[in-house]
Amino acid sequence: MKRIKITEHIIWHARRIARRKVKTVLGRCLKSNEIVHHVDFNPLNTKNSNLLVCTRAYHMRLHRKLQLLEKVKKHKDKIKRLYAEGYSGNYIAKDLKFGHRTVRKILKYLNVKIRTKGEAIKTNLKIMKVSGYYYHTDEFLIKELKRVSVLNKERPLSERMFRQISKHCSSTVRRHFGSWNNAKRIADIS
Ligand SMILES: [Zn+2]
C-alpha cells in the first residue's frame, strides 16, 4: 500500500468535505462564527459522528476544557500528593510549569478542598527547590520575620530594616501575606 503523506493540502480538502457534509445535514452553509470541531482531533476523519458544529466562542471553551482534562489525566496523582504533603498550589504550578490558576482549577475539578491562607500557615511546609530556585513557604517567612525582629531593636520593624538584615526581600513577605502589617500580625511581632 502506498503511504500517503498528510499535507496541509489534504487536510484542507478534508475540512472542505466536513463543511460540505454539515451543509447537507443542516440545509445551510456555516455562519461566519461557526466552526466544525473534530471529536477525535483528526481532521481526516469526516464521519458524521466525528463532526460537531459549534460557535467559535464555544469551540475555544471546549478546547480549553479538553486541555485541562488532559492535564488532569496526566498529573492528577502528583498534584494530589504534593498538595496533601503541604505544598501550595503556586509551588505545584511552578514545578509542573503550569499557569498559576491551572492547579487551582484542577484541584477544584478533583474535589480537593482548597486550603485557606490560615490553614496553609498551620501546615508544616518545607522550602521547595524547583528548577534551581527556592520558593519560600509561609512558615519559613514567619520564622525569618521573627529572627529579624529579634536582631533589630528598632520599632516598628520597617521593610527597609528587614531588607538590610535579612537576605530575603520584604516584597516576598508582602506577597505571601497580602500586606506588610498583616505579615507582622501573623508572625506576632511589632
Ligand atoms: Zn476543535
One letter per element, helices H and strands E, the order comes to: HEEHHHHEEHHHH
Average of the residue pLDDT scores: 84
The hetero compounds bound to this protein are: zinc ion
**Treating each run of at least 4 consecutive H or I residues as one helix, how many helices?**
9
Summarize this structure briefly.
The chain is mainly alpha-helical and 190 residues long.
Write up what this structure looks like.
The structure is a single chain. With 190 residues, the chain is mainly alpha-helical. Among the domains are: 8-60, no CATH class; 136-190. Helices cover 57% and strands 8% of the residues. The chain is built from 9 helices and 4 strands. The strands form 2 sheets. It has a two-stranded antiparallel sheet with strand order 1-2. Strands 3-4 form a two-stranded antiparallel sheet. The N and C termini lie far apart (80 Å). 15% of the residues are buried. Zinc ion binds at residues 37, 59, 63. Residues 37, 59, 63 line the site of zinc ion (ZN).
Question: What would the keywords be for this entry?
Answer:
mainly alpha; 190 residues; 57% helix; two-stranded antiparallel ribbon; 4 strands; binds zinc ion; 9 helices
